[in-house]
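I would love for you to help me understand the pair of lines that follows before we discuss the fold together.
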Amino acid sequence: CIAGLHIYTLEDLVQRFYRRIGGGRRHIPPGLQIIWMRQIMDGGRFTFFTPPVLSFPVHPHEKISVPQGTVTRLTNAINQLKASGIQPSHLRGDLDESEGAERDKLADLIAIYEAYQQKLGHQWIDRAGLHCAVSNHLSKSSFQAKALMTTLFPGVDLVVVSGFDVFSPPDFAILTSIADLPQIGLCIVLDF
């Protein structure tokens, strides 16, 4: 047993950093994120991601929705894009090189991604947004990283990161900012 040992998941550490830097936006839980994606997909007009055409009669007032599996996969895809630092504007360049169904799929993905970002607005932030905000804050200057670390973890001179085999670009930038602090050692134990 080591007295005063702080143990955090990377997610908890990022959330603690975010609260301290005064982000102010509310963290959106995954369940609400799925609900919003469902609303966006059911409310939009998309070429590729449209509900299936049924060969049997449906009540005239009943709306056919995009399958839940599709909504979940698109939510995961957008989360992965955001975690990798890829914004809708980056994807727009690929539209010119795409054609047919691939172009329609990409155009719909961009439209859904933009609608989701708009829904987040200035009030909400998702997991990838948290990591990017903290990364951007820490990357601005070593002074900001030092001030944050010494305020939240006074007396800490070693940070050990264990159980990872890959880091997203924002997480790598967060760890790099900590590693660049001369008074704090960083040890990364990879899990592969």
Notes: The chain has eight helices and four strands. The longest helix spans residues 100-120.
